[in-house]
Amino acid sequence: MRLLGIAKFKSPSGRVLVAGTFTPEERERVYDRKGSEIGYVAEIFGNVDKPYISVSASRLIRKEHVGGLELYIKERDTDGKSKGDKRRHGRS
After folding, report:
1. Among 12, 24, 25, 32, which residue is least crowded by beta carbons within 10 Å?
2. How far apart, in whole angstroms, are the C-alpha atoms of residue 88 and residue 59?
3. Are 57 and 16 in contact (CB under 8 A)?
4. 73, exposed or middle or buried, with CB in 10 Å at 0-12, 13-18, 19+?
């Protein structure tokens, strides 16, 4: 798993704001340190080098437990030749 960033706070709408370490793809699944799914990347904004990421939480997370939470994404397996990952073999 790759460190997405550190959660800063939870908005009233239920989204978690993360100070990112890199720019992920939208709709990518987000996990906590234990590997439990937290939600997915909903929006990316801010600086390209250090973006802010809005994560739509699919799991109930208490506001007071969000600050400082490390969030991760699973790295995709690629064959090293194509730009996409192995799971996509073409359009259906």
Report:
1. 12
2. 27
3. yes
4. buried
Amino acid identity, position 80: G
In a domain, residue 85? The reply is no
Q: What is the count of structural domains for the chain? A: 1
Which of 75, 49, 62 has its CA nearest to residue 16?
62
Domain for residue 49, yes or no? yes
Among 42, 3, 49, 2, CA closest to 23: 49
Residues 52-82: tens digit of each pLDDT? 999 998 867 766 678 888 999 998 766 556 5
d(CA 45, CA 65): 23
